């Protein structure tokens, strides 16, 4: 996942990097598709393995593979020399599909408040709408959005280890703090996007009119 603000290029993407000889061109996309394919399995394991057992530990293992795929898919795509924006669309779609599915499963188990996935969905919807409206740079990276994406994965990792695998390393009070942090950083990402899209009004003259 990208962070910070990078130079603007025509069409909203950076130049194509030269592919390394012999490197699989679609290796990054394969990892991203793997994340999409493993998401239903993860949800099923979480729903069946709540409280420990073999299914619970399989859920932990599947989460580890999903998180690793999110870490490596962009790096593999850059090694293959693919344009950054082409893979990022698929990458972000895989991220939101997994995160909302995972968090919704914990809502169904009454372990997570409903407004946690709702905040994540609202932040992603703002990102999607602002990207659609920005013709010059449709996938403008956001530092808060990147941090929020990492924290969302951390939250799911905490839930699958603490609740699904029944390790119970964190007390309910700490989990409540983690839940409350979600709308805070999601709201910050939304505000950041809205400020970028806010129209620049011309300066106001002495008679109250704008030039």
Fill in the keyword field for this structure.
Four Helix Bundle (Hemerythrin (Met), subunit A), mainly alpha, 211 residues, disordered N terminus
Residues in helices, as a percent range: 55-70%
Low-confidence stretches: 1-16, 199-203
Gyration radius, to the nearest Å?
A: 20 Å
CATH architecture: Up-down Bundle
What percent strand?
under 5%
In the CATH scheme, what's the topology name? Four Helix Bundle (Hemerythrin (Met), subunit A)
CATH class: Mainly Alpha
User: How many strands appear in the DSSP assignment?
Assistant: 0
Model description:
This protein is mostly helical. The chain has a single domain (24-197), classed as Four Helix Bundle (Hemerythrin (Met), subunit A), CATH 1.20.120. The chain has six helices and no strands. The chain has helices at residues 27-48, 54-79, 84-108, 115-133, 143-164, 172-197. The longest helix has 26 residues, at 54-79. The protein is globular, with a radius of gyration of 20 Å. 29% of the residues are buried. Residues 1-16 and 199-203 have low confidence and may be disordered.
């Amino acid at each position: 996942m990208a962070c910070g603000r990078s130079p603007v290029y025509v069409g909203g993407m950076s130049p194509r990097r030269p592919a390394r000889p012999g490197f699989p061109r679609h290796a990054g996309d394969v990892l991203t598709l793997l994340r999409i394919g493993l998401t239903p399995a993860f949800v099923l394991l979480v729903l069946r393995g709540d409280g420990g057992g073999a299914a619970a530990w399989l859920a932990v293992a599947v989460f580890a593979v999903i998180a690793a795929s999110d870490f490596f898919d962009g790096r593999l795509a850059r090694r293959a020399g693919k344009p950054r924006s082409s893979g990022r669309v698929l990458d972000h779609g895989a991220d939101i599909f997994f995160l909302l599915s995972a968090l919704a499963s914990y809502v169904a188990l009454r372990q997570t408040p409903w407004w946690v996935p709702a905040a994540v969905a609202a932040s992603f919807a703002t990102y999607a709408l602002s990207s659609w409206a920005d013709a010059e740079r449709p996938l403008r990276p956001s530092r808060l959005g990147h941090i929020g994406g990492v924290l969302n994965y951390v939250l799911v990792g905490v839930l699958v280890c603490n609740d699904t695998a029944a390790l119970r390393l964190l007390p309910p009070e700490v989990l409540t703090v983690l839940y409350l942090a979600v709308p805070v950083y999601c709201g910050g990402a939304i505000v950041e996007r809205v400020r970028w899209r806010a129209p620049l009004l011309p300066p106001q003259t002495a008679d109250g009119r704008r030039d």
